[in-house]
Amino acid sequence: xxxxxxxxxxxxxxxxxxxxxxxxxxxxxxxxxxxxxxxxxxxxxxxxxxxxxxxxxxxxxxxxxxxxxxxxxxxxxxxxxxxxxxxxxxxxxxxxxxxxxxxxxxxxxxxxxxxxxxxxxxxxxxxxxxxxxxxxxxxxxxxxxxxxxxxxxxxxxxxxxxxxxx
Length: 166
Prior knowledge:
The chain has 166 residues and is α+β, with helices and mostly antiparallel strands. The chain has 4 helices and 9 strands, in the order E-H-E-E-E-E-H-E-E-E-E-H-H. The strands form 2 sheets. It has a 5-stranded mixed β-sheet. A hairpin with a 7-residue loop joins strand 3 (45-49) and strand 4. The model has no long low-confidence stretch (mean pLDDT 94).
């Protein structure tokens, strides 16, 4: 096996999610989270993004129209992670979810990031998170490996970010 690291410019582009009801998915992703619809193909597919990109998320019913959510104890995608640019943007996501009555399945401070966990209307797992600056990431005592943690995220404190800036 090749042990040379991958080119550091590589990143993960977009994710396509199978959904049972396209309108319901668009209401969640665009209506609640605030993504923008870039293109819709009838009742079968839609492409949404932040900031006018062609698409960050594809939603389709090609193999899933009217289908039930997958069982919890099965293989597949654990969650898709949506990275927010800063803590204030993540606080806004929390506000949007709260106002829409959408419950979180978890919230964690990982040392390197702060994250909100939930499921979309089709049971697809989502992580909404923002990274801390790299120089603040916890490291092992030798200064080498990252030492991620899973601690409780103080949600009321996160929401105070909305009070500090316009």
